[in-house]
Design a protein that fits this description.
160 residues, alpha/beta, six-stranded mixed β-sheet, two-stranded antiparallel sheet, 4 helices, 32% helix
């Protein structure tokens, strides 16, 4: 009984150490599994549903030379760090939000989902909402000059 009482009296310390350990290992995992922006292309999708891991794997099958990875994220991924969204290379966003993100987008968008017809790209991976969606290249992309963002976007457009 005394042992249990001793354990429970220090439970808050054990929980604190467990939380700190989890945060440390999460940081290490992110550090080990990520790379610099010049070695990856990041795709942000502002859609209700996305199979980000599966889409990234599919896009990496025909990855441009010089890249280590392609990351696909929903906008929820940067919810607490919204400033990070302007560093994306490719965006898939609904028509109603194109003005809101105009400063972060380069050039004109390509329609990738037609709501009226229900047709679009990568529907196996992306669950679109009830409006048209467009693909844009990011104005702040480090891959605008070397063309790697455009190559990945072209590959994405091929997925039916």
């Amino acid at each position: 009984m005394r042992i249990l009482k001793n354990i429970f009296s220090h439970l808050h310390i054990f929980v604190l150490w467990a939380m700190l350990s989890a945060m440390l290992w999460a940081w290490i995992f992110t550090f080990v599994t990520d790379t610099t922006p010049d070695k990856k292309v990041t795709v942000y999708c502002h859609v209700p549903e996305i199979k980000s891991t599966e889409l990234a794997i599919r896009l990496e099958e025909d990855m441009p030379d010089g890249l280590k990875m392609i990351k696909v994220h929903s906008f929820d991924y940067v919810m607490f760090n919204i400033e990070a969204i302007d560093k994306g290379d490719i965006y898939i966003i609904p028509a109603s939000e194109t003005e809101q993100f105009a400063d972060d987008l380069a050039g004109d968008g390509v329609k990738v989902y037609d709501c009226a017809e229900g047709t679009g790209i990568a529907k196996e991976f992306i669950g679109y909402g009830e409006e048209d969606y467009y693909l844009f290249l990011g104005a702040g992309s480090v891959h605008l000059e070397d063309g790697k963002a455009l190559e990945v976007a072209e590959e994405l457009l091929k997925i039916k």
